[in-house]
Amino acid sequence: MKWLRLSERSNLPTKVCKICFKEIGDKTLFNLTHKEADVCARCFQEIKMHFFKFQVLGYNAISIYRYDEKVQSLLYQFKGCFDYELLNVFFERFSRELSLRYRGYVVVPVPSYKQDDEIREFNHVEEMFKILHLPMRKLIAKTKKIKQATSTSQKRKKIGEHLVLTDNSDLSNFKILLVDDVYTTGSTMKACIKLIEKLHPKKIEVLVMSKTENK
Question: How much is the pTM?
Fold first, then answer.
């Protein structure tokens, strides 16, 4: 008798990795324990995580990945090519752990320029962090399009001039988790922290998907 794959025996469609498009099997411990995963174990291994701890203006911060070529390519495909199907691949394998780690926090995303979100039809930072299932408040807006990657160091330092609070409600009873996709010089994150500090939150922490080296 010919053995059938699990998906054929159960009449379920074959699950395919959203990065390499190959079938996701149940041959690895990872896939057995993360049946909801949309990425195969091999691709997860290629996205090297490092959970680097650092500080921003005295506040605790964590980056999940180094901003290497693999992470840069995936982020560009998600953010720049509007590949919405990739929204969960960055945090999927440890979303439960992060949800527990930041339980009781309110997520505040670092903003994109509104017109960029309208063209993309989604805000990549907001969508990426929704997998944590934490309450989210969009408290900061960007008033001008500034491309950080091509900006001079002086222009990056002035990014705070183009960020504004959209809600001045008191945050003294809230713990705030500021989130972003990439941490480079830290200018944007520092500007966001200074704005949030005006609302007197109980606590501030930072979580970023990736961080460049030596910054």
Answer: 0.83
